[in-house]
Amino acid sequence: MRGLLALFVACGLLSVVVPQQVLAHPADPTQGGTGGRIIKVTSLAKDGPGSLAEALAAKGPRIIVFEVGGAIDLERSGLSITEPFVTIAGQTAPSPGITILRGGIDVKTHDVKMQHLRVITGADGQAKRSGWEADAFSTVSAARVVIENCTFIWAIDENMSASGPRFTGETVEEWRKGTSRDIVFRLNLAAEGLADSSHPKGEHSKGSLIHDNATGIVFDRNIWAHHVERSPLVKGGAHVLMVNNLIYNPGHRAVHYNLMDLEWAGHTPVTGQITSVGNVMRGGNDTDPDLPFLMLGGVGDLAWYGKDDRAVDRHGNPLPMFGRYGETAAKLVVSETPLASLDGYDIMPSGDVETTLLATAGARPWDRGSEEIRVLFFIAEGRGDIIDDESEVGGYPVIKATTAPFDAKDWNLGTMTPRSGLYPAQKPGAQEHLSPRDRAMRGAAR
Hints:
The chain is α/β, with parallel strands linked by helices. The chain has helices at residues 2-11, 52-57, 172-177, 261-264, 353-360, 370-381, 436-445; strands at residues 37-41, 62-66, 68-81, 86-89, 98-107, 110-115, 118-120, 137-140, 143-148, 151-153, 160-163, 181-186, 189-191, 209-210, 215-220, 223-225, 233-235, 239-243, 246-248, 255-259, 272-277, 280-282, 294-298, 302-307, 310-312, 322-324, 332-334, 402-403, 411-412, 417-418. The protein has a single domain (2-445), classed as 3 Solenoid (Pectate Lyase C-like), CATH 2.160.20.10. Strands 3, 5, 7, 8, 10, 11, 13, 16, 19, 22, 25 and 28 form a twelve-stranded mixed beta sheet that branches. A hairpin with a 4-residue loop joins strand 29 and strand 30. Helix 1 (2-11) packs across helix 7. The protein is globular and about 60 Å long. Mean pLDDT is 91; it is low at 1-21 and 440-446.
């Protein structure tokens, strides 16, 4: 136990420092519901009065805050965000924060900001290939969305994706307007997509899917851990920026691009774009030998700009940067300059990525949940595996419900940071709900 605690402290996994990344980012496409009315979530029920579902369905600019902490059990259903101009401020919840169980979230509108939520999907006892195939999080034809400091675990399909129809209209511009665009994923933890589970297609441990013709998609300082592939998969004609992400223990593919002829039949291929700066791929127990950082498939070309990316196996030996799958006509077109704007991004050297992200990525770095602690600890130790079912790692966590009033005077409503510098879980007595073991671990870490 002493060694475990020492590693937590060294890696910052139990840090109580207020994370500055929650402040508005200069490159973000939206501020969500900033300036709107405050709606308080007072119930952990999956719907009904005082629920998160009711707050999401409300109209007009709004900031959703929480006077409850604990688990919202969706019972194998989903939450859909269809009303725009909303900020979901999970950081306002009392410890242990808000965890969504047995379901996922879809964003189907514009101007959404979501912060500091956990989504733990899982198979929930469903038979293999039986049809339960939930994403933990996805945008569907959405625009101007920022998802930051969230945790997505045990998805049956992708853990965090940007999706929508492939072709809407007659021109490339119309296609791009019809699908997801201007989506930012920042400081999220996406882990342990379930492999041989209830998805009807069979193996489906997937990190992120960026659908055909999606543009303005940004991955900034995220962690993908323990997926067979799609960390991320960029489909035909999509435009993606990747800055300072960590990919740990990918199975058969890490980053890959594929414009599939079977899906584009009758349409002229459109060149995709990826700008990749300061990203790290580290192999683990399930990683194929000599796995490249980027693999190219399909029939469409990919324009690529890369700088200071690194890829190593589980022993720290270099891995190749490029490879391909399938005998296809796709070409890698290397650019001398970035294909997306890097303005506003504080880019760190790739050598600093792992240590920094272990301390700052995922929901509520000052108030980690048990699954986050386990996943992040295993990354630091070079441990962990791709799994088929949540039962392999202990099953769904038991999360106690808590309550605490929200007082707007205690918060900077423009940034949803506490005026005192302390989040609710950091105040004396705020974590009395913790088990003796968890309380001892966190106390020792301080």
